[in-house]
Design a protein that fits this description.
By secondary structure, this protein is an alpha+beta fold. Among the domains are: 2-169, Alpha-Beta Plaits (2-Layer Sandwich), CATH 3.30.70; 231-353, 3-Layer(aba) Sandwich (Rossmann fold); 537-625, Serine Threonine Protein Phosphatase 5, Tetratricopeptide repeat, CATH 1.25.40; 634-736, Lipocalin, CATH 2.40.128. 45% of the residues lie in helices and 20% in strands. The strands form four sheets. A nine-stranded antiparallel β-sheet has the order 22-21-20-19-18-17-25-24-23. Strands 1, 2, 3, 4, 5, 6, 7 and 8 form an eight-stranded mixed β-sheet that branches. Strands 10, 11, 12, 13, 14 and 15 form a six-stranded mixed β-sheet that branches. A hairpin with a 2-residue loop joins strand 20 (680-688) and strand 21 (691-696). Helix 15 packs parallel to helix 17 (458-471) and helix 17 (458-471) packs antiparallel against helix 18.
Length: 738
Amino acid sequence: MERRLAAIMIADVVGYTKLIQADEAGTRVRFRALQKDLFEPSVGSHGGRIIKTMGDAFLLEFPSAVEAVSCAIEVQRELEALENDRTEDQRIQFRIGINVGDIIVEGDDIHGDGVNVAARLEKKSESGGILISGTVHDQVVGKLDIAFEDMGEVEVKNMARPVRVFRVLLDGNAAPAVKNKTSTRRYRYGAATLVAIVIALYSYNVWFGNDLANVEPAAVERMAHALPDKPSVAVLPFTNLSDDKEQEYFADGMTDDLITDLSKVSGLIVIARNSVFTYKGKNVKAQEVAKDLNVSHVLEGSVRRVGKQIRINAQLIDAKTGAHLWSERFDRAYEDIFKLQDEIASKIVAALEVTLTVEEKTRLARKQTKNLEAYEKYLQARKAHFRFDDEGMMRALRLYAEAIELDPNFVAAYAGDARLAGYLIGGVQKRLFLKSGPARERSERSFTRALKLDPNNSEAMSVQARNYLHFKTRAEAIAVARKAVSANANDASSHRTLALVLAADGENAEAKREIDTALRLDPKLGIGTAATTGWIYYSVGEYEQAIRYYQIAVQRLPKVAFGHLGLVMSYTQLDRGAAAKAALEKLLKISARANLRRVAAFGRHLKKEVLEHLLDGLRKAGLPEWPYGFKPVPANQLSGAEIKATIFGHRIKGRSGSGLEFEQTTSQSGVSVIKNPYFTLNLEYRVEGDELCGRFLETASGRWECAPVYRNPAGSRAELNEFTSAGTITVIEYSIVE
């Protein structure tokens, strides 16, 4: 028997008995789906574990109060979005109680005061709410951007003293992001469809190339390659000294703008935003930063804004000696902010004894906007954007649009909007606020406008290159990516994008040079950049390096399949059979539907030889060809005419490989509607040869995806399993009901 302190959460469904009485089968399916696709990924991403389920309740343990509360907030907000279209009496809602206290561990179970208090709080919580003990509140206040309401003290059975209780205000303005940490999860709600590949296909931002969640870095050693022989600088996040802490976005914006301005100078090496922002809020010495980022100079400063006045202190430090090359205090009216930015950038360049070309002087003098209100909206949008959570991204999209409305020629706002909308094309998460198709349209509209206004905007070109890689040709993507690097040699994202599109086309030597450069400029990798970097190194045959970065991706997102896939194929190519087998086991435990056909669909934009290299590592390791271990019997495959007879003009019912039930109605012309407990999808069908081909109307590409259909001799209409179709994302069974 072990006794220790722990953070305990108890979550219980409100009115579960009534839900069961109204629809027993449907409620149980929905509850199981929520456990698998919401609770388990969220708990895992916060380092927690499900101790046990108790009918309609969960008992969970977390490594800290911060992780427990962050997880609870994520679950409640996501659940509210998922159940929002149901009537109040049909919704699955949880009450949650959280406590930090003494527990007794016996085998796989726990009990004790820590659990008792959490259970008591759960019972007193409202539907969809979270109550925490005073102990939890003391440990999370100031560490989570969320508000709390003091509910006073409550009596708890067998406890000598009352327990102080706080309610988490889920409808507050702030999001539950742990400071300096972003928890990124992937909700995998299976789409009940005969050809469900398309939803997964456009998750390419995780697989092959979006710089996701750069806010949370992985600690990577200093690169072995020395920076070029010219001054290099890291601009540390400016400290917000304003009394109004809401002005944090302004201090971050000043840092961003200085990085952007200095990056335009060809005589400098400037470290990327992602890497320098890992030091935000930390008390670090300039020499330590310089050693960590491999730079010769560090710029640090502070911002104080009071009304219409601003004060900026800045100092440039020679990292080798610790000497201050330049320092100055600026007191200006806010309306002069753009002139002030010019002045600071010019003085830094002068202190570093760098000579500007005529073109660089012109570019530095060219400001993004003259509209101060639009500029404010833009800075707020960037702050929200780089949180990379749903609430932040929704806010960012709105603010980018408002900035553009105030100044229709605001290039940076268009570029930021294009980048964020491009990220959302993937549909890795269940985006209720911007679906795949509209996201693509918005991204393309914004980067087109940005580049019409400024043909040399590297951010917009990077977005365009990634878009072209998937929706046009590799050659067009490479041409745009090269232009982006030429426009701004200090833009790590542009170098990474060029490496990505070159690797996709099998241009390995140049791809390696570009990813090495990206790492020099941005050595502190985020979650998405670690996975992208691993993929590029695998593509060019640098398997040890690939393993290094895939391991980072797995450490940060242990429940996401891509990092595990990368380890499987990299270990295989190095003939490390045991390691490859272990990685494959972890992969299939995380995603039973992982399969070669799905990987091939993800990689359709790759050159044939590049895709085969990818599949080779997975095939040798034993990754199944079909999802859920499905093994088709060729003799049972339906002909094209038979497929049409079972789908067109009929209503069918069935379930997916994960057990999610669905209903689908298809017209004689092939227009179809699929409904399951969580959402409705619209698509159209046609038959090609002996395969059923479909395309979703909500997704970005409009491509047709095809899959065979098989007769199940052992199936029956009663069991809704007379026919089986295996796509790349799932296997479904169904029967004709009308």
